[in-house]
């Protein structure tokens, strides 16, 4: 657990100081009147960089840093856990042997047990695509299945369906 | 008058100074001092508002006075505060005795010289973006310690202001009484907050505002009746409420009123300052200013080193403590009205305090701004290679 040092600043508020894994020293001062300040100390005793925020700005920034507003995920590794099932977004590069095959003939379902629940594409995304839908280059397949099956799906995307 | 205060406040913002010295200057310039046009004359109205200003200032000081605060950084507060007290109150007393001989007046002068301005220092720390610095913890700790010492000096001032002819024993008695009351109120407040917590949430905004004002002013009146001065009474009333949950609400409700009354107080103090007396106060200033500046720099440096800070950080501590302000003015106000005091002293103390605050506040803020550079000059990189990285 990250160590955060909490210090009372009499007549001002409370100061929280932490050292990041990269060695930066960051302090945040929360004033009694709701003002927040973020201090970043460069090495040595140079002047710190300071950001001053009012209550509303601080909440907004806090939500952004906390991942409430937007959670950073690489599309390739996007996963949503649904109990013991996982939903994953899989990109289909133009080089994949699956391009040009239908949902049925790419055999994702029959060989892995995972199901394509949607195809995201620029021209218009499809929910629960028909088995005869043809996969195109740069499609993103939204697949639901057990976590263990995703290695196999990636292999299918790279090498094509088994004979 | 109010227009003046707005202009003064705006000017203070421009100069990145606390508004306190500017208000005093405005009072001096517009008041009945010779050589300047008398725009505003002191009246019953200004006097009443000024008194309300003192009461609210000290009531707020009391509100901030919780035991938690005192024990938050105990070691720093005690070690730093004690060094500051010994050096600066000691030097102040030395100056007082040299100028006035061993007398109650000398003790009061020591108080005026000793106590830094929480208001100006905290404001400057914010403006200069020093609040998160490690050594700032020590600076604020020393200010907390000084708040405790204020109770003692107020007791002395009260004894002098209300007594007929006082001996040293009586003064010590009143000062001790004031300190005893402070400790009693701290303990009582710890218990009494249950009562306030029960009453507080049931009050609406207006009732809370009026109730808090009643407590503050009532405390002041009681203090005066008990021979402790209204300032001590208001301080005690604040301390009594400091442990309760209604404290935050009271602070929010009264903050604007306090700032208003404080501005009037400093302005009214400026009005009282008669610059024709300043010639004689000049001698005091010449003795007190160097002592005050050097004393704080030295005490801050020693306190910093004693608490394990690097030499450069310790320079910052000393520089941050130089500014004097509201408390020096409050003490001077009490002293000027002290019936038992030497008449010459009473005439001189207001102009001295006004100019003293002016000089030290400006010097303090400038020193704070330049303290990193001073630290680097005094302790070049070679000497601080093993600087602690706290």
Describe this structure as you would to a colleague.
The complex is a heterodimer of chains A (163) and B (390). Chain A has three helices and ten strands; from the N terminus they run E-E-E-E-E-H-E-E-H-E-E-E-H. Chain A is of the alpha+beta class and 163 residues long. Chain B is an all-alpha fold and 390 residues long. In chain B, 79% of the residues lie in helices and 0% in strands. Chain B has helices at residues 2-15, 19-30, 44-63, 67-72, 74-100, 104-114, 118-127, 134-162, 168-199, 205-225, 229-242, 246-272, 278-306, 311-320, 326-336, 343-378. In chain B, helix 5 packs across helix 6 (104-114), helix 13 packs antiparallel against helix 14 and helix 15 packs antiparallel against helix 16 (343-378). Classes of the chains: A alpha+beta (163), B mainly alpha (390). The interface between A and B is medium-sized, with 18 and 27 residues.
Summarize the structure.
Chain A is of the alpha+beta class and 163 residues long. Chain A has helices at 55-65, 108-112, 150-159; strands spanning 4-9, 13-19, 25-31, 36-41, 49-53, 79-82, 85-91, 115-120, 126-127, 140-145.
Q: Mean pLDDT of chain B, rounded to whole units?
A: 79
How many helices of chain B? Answer: 16
- Percent strand of chain B equals under 5%
Order of helices and strands of chain B: HHHHHHHHHHHHHHHH
| Largest sheet entry of chain B | none
How would you classify the helix and strand content of chain A by structural class?
A: alpha+beta
List low-pLDDT spans of chain A.
none
State which percent range the strand residues of chain A make up.
Answer: 25-35%
Determine the structural class of chain B based on helices, strands and strand pairing.
mainly alpha
Quaternary state of this entry equals heterodimer
């Amino acid at each position: 657990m990250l160590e955060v040092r909490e210090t009372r600043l009499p007549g001002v508020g409370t100061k929280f100081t932490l050292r990041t894994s990269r060695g930066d020293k960051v302090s945040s001062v929360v004033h009694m009147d709701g003002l927040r300040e973020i201090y970043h100390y460069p090495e040595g005793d140079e002047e710190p960089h300071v950001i001053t925020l009012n209550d509303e700005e601080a909440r907004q920034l806090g939500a952004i840093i906390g991942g409430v507003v937007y959670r950073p995920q690489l599309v390739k590794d996007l996963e949503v856990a649904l109990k013991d099932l996982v939903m994953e977004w899989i990109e289909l590069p133009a080089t994949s042997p699956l391009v040009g095959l239908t949902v049925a003939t790419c055999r994702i379902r029959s060989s892995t047990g995972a199901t394509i629940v949607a195809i995201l594409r620029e021209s218009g995304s499809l929910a629960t695509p028909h088995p005869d839908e043809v996969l195109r280059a740069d499609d993103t397949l939204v697949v639901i299945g057990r976590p263990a099956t995703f290695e196999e799906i990636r292999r299918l995307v790279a090498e094509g369906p088994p004979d | 008058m109010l227009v003046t205060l707005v202009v003064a406040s705006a000017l203070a913002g421009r100069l990145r100074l606390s508004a306190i010295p500017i208000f005093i200057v405005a009072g001096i310039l517009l008041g009945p001092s010779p050589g300047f046009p008398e725009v505003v004359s002191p009246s019953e109205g200004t006097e009443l508002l000024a008194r309300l200003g003192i009461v609210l200032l000290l009531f707020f000081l009391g509100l901030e006075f919780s035991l938690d605060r005192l024990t938050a950084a105990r070691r720093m507060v005690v070690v730093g505060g004690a060094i500051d007290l010994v050096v600066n109150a000691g030097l102040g007393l030395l100056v007082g005795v040299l100028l006035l001989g061993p007398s109650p007046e000398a003790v009061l002068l020591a108080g005026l010289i000793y106590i830094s301005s929480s208001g100006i220092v905290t404001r400057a720390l914010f403006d200069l973006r020093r609040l998160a610095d490690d050594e700032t913890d020590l600076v604020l700790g020393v200010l907390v310690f000084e708040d405790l010492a204020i109770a003692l000096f107020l007791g002395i001032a009260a004894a002098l202001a209300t007594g007929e002819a006082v001996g040293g024993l009586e003064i010590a008695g009143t000062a001790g009484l004031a300190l005893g009351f402070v400790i009693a109120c701290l303990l009582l407040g710890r218990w009494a907050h249950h009562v306030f917590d029960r009453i507080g949430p049931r009050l609406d905004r207006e009732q809370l505002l009026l109730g808090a004002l009643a407590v503050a002013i009532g405390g002041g009146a009681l203090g005066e009746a008990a021979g402790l001065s209204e300032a001590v009474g208001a301080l005690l009333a604040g301390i009594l409420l400091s442990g309760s949950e209604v404290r935050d609400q009271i602070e929010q409700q009264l903050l604007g009123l306090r700032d208003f009354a404080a501005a009037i107080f400093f302005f009214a103090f400026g009005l009282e300052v008669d610059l024709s007396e300043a010639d004689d106060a000049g001698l005091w200033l010449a003795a007190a200013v160097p002592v005050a500046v050097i004393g704080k720099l030295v005490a801050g440096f020693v306190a910093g080193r004693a608490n394990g800070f690097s030499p450069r950080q310790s320079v910052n501590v000393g520089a941050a403590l130089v500014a004097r302000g509201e408390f020096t003015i409050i003490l001077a106000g009490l002293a000027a009205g002290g019936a038992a005091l030497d008449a010459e002293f009473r005439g001189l103390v207001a102009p001295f305090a006004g100019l003293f605050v002016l000089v030290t506040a400006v010097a303090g803020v400038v020193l704070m701004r330049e303290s990193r550079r001073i630290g680097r000059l005094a302790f070049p990189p070679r000497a601080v290679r093993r600087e602690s990285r706290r």
